[in-house]
Amino acid sequence: MIVAVNAICAAAAVPFRGEEKSAIAKQPLSGKVRITTLGLAGDEQADLVHHGGPDMAVHHYPRDHHDYWRSELGDHPLLAEPGAFGSNLFTIGITEEDVLLGDRFRLGSALLEACQPRQPCWKIEHRFGEKAMVKRILRTGRCGWFYRVIEEGEAEAGDRLEKVADGLAGWSMARIFNAIWGTTHKSDPELLKEIAELPLLAEKLRAKLVVRTTS
């Protein structure tokens, strides 16, 4: 699996709602970008409790989903921006259905490993000025996902994102997202326990699932 990376995006944390800050408004970067275990050089996270860290180093949201959002929101100006959903990587041709937990991808000289789907939050709705976007993401699974960085390196827009190692068969980002947060079915406690035991899952998410299945 090989796709071109149309844009690599980052942002500084700036005032977002009142005194609260956010770095969701990612903008395309030019030239080579350093990719470290904590994310892209120049990229920030305002809320380090819920965002950032080694298991949320790089966020990927597919361009493939923008047509769906246009059908829901019309020609919203943010949908013309590659970092509209706060993502670092913008591609076409790969979605949550295609990416397995633990899949490894070479991007430039960096090596990335898919480790969790993204849980949507209210900041998406606030940025777009549209209510019920989170509910639509929960229903449709158009969530995006996160990578941890196995090998630090550099990349730039136009580079290839190439899958170089397979993750856990049967455990796509779509399946994990739907099991944990999906709203089209009732949560299955046994399935959540199984997910919590997967060896390559992001540790913070694992801890949350343990609490959820034992409380």
TrEMBL record:
SUPFAM superfamilies from the entry?
A: PK beta-barrel domain-like
Residues crossing the lipid bilayer are none
Signal peptide (from-to): none
Which Gene Ontology MF annotations are present? catalytic activity; molybdenum ion binding; pyridoxal phosphate binding
Instruction: Quote the InterPro entries the UniProt record gives.
Output: Benzoxazolinone_Detox_Enz, MoCF_Sase_C, Pyrv_Knase-like_insert_dom_sf
Q: Specify the MOSC domain's residue ranges.
A: 27-164
Q: Which PROSITE patterns match?
A: MOSC
What PANTHER family would the database entry show? Answer: PROTEIN YIIM
Name by which UniProt lists this protein: MOSC domain-containing protein
Organism source for this protein? Alteraurantiacibacter aquimixticola
